[in-house]
Amino acid sequence: MQRRSPSFYRKRIARQAAPLYRANERIRVPVVMVIDENKKSLGEMDTKKALALARERELDLVEVQPKAVPPICKILDFGQFQYEQEKTRSKQKARQKKVEVKAVRISFRIGEHDLAIKRSQAEKFITQGNKVKIDVVLKGREKGYVEEAKKNMDAFAKSLGEGIIVEQPFSKQGGRLSMIVGKKA
After folding, report:
1. d(Cα 92, Cα 124) in Å, to the nearest integer?
2. Which of 64, 95, 116, 147 is the most buried (most CB within 10 A)?
3. Could you report the per-residue pLDDT of 80-133, keeping only the tens digit for each?
């Protein structure tokens, strides 16, 4: 069996992400709604006539809304159209706000001073716009005190301030208790 390189898979994923537009001979429907390069509607037209009109103007016929009935096609430069679509996609991606989840681990028998330091860390993360995952790891005989650990976590979450909400309630996996808190929207 032939092994494929990791770049093969990356390319395949990248190809799937971009929306595909049919152009020129790849348009399969017999009748389309045509819009010319000046954004003027030319009405419903036979696909072959629309393609001939686009070639006459030395441009491409691109299907921009394939699900419309009949599909909407524009007469334009396909390369320029793809460039503009990629540019708008990259702008939208840049505008997205990435919210990270930062973790703060407190122990079951944490001291007051250590708790204050962890609280200030968590407050800093929240003011930066991130969510905070509060972890408590129970070891050995501490696993018998799950309810007390939950109370400690709840008290810690309440001490972070008024505008804090619990986004993911307590979850227990083995000896690890966790919850996620964030700022109210």
Report:
1. 28
2. 64
3. 999 999 999 888 888 877 778 999 999 888 899 999 999 999 999 999 889 999
Q: Let me know if 11 is exposed, middle or buried by CB neighbors in 10 A (0-12, 13-18, 19+).
A: exposed
Q: What pTM was estimated for this model as a whole?
A: 0.52
Paired with 175 in beta bridges are none
Average per-residue pLDDT for the chain: 87
What pLDDT sits at residue 123?
A: 92
Looking at the domain that runs over 101-183, which CATH code has it been given? 3.30.110.10
Domain 6-94 belongs to what architecture? Roll (3.10)
Beta carbons of 183 and 163 less than 8 angstroms apart = yes
Give the per-residue pLDDT at 30.
92
Pair 87, 93: CB distance under 8 Å: no
Residues in the chain: 185
| CATH 3.10.20.80 domain range(s) in the chain | 6-94
Residue pointed to by tokens 């152009």? 23
What is the CB neighbour count within 10 angstroms for residue 40?
9
User: Going by C-beta distance under 8 Å and a sequence separation of 6 or more, which residues neighbour residue 91?
Assistant: none
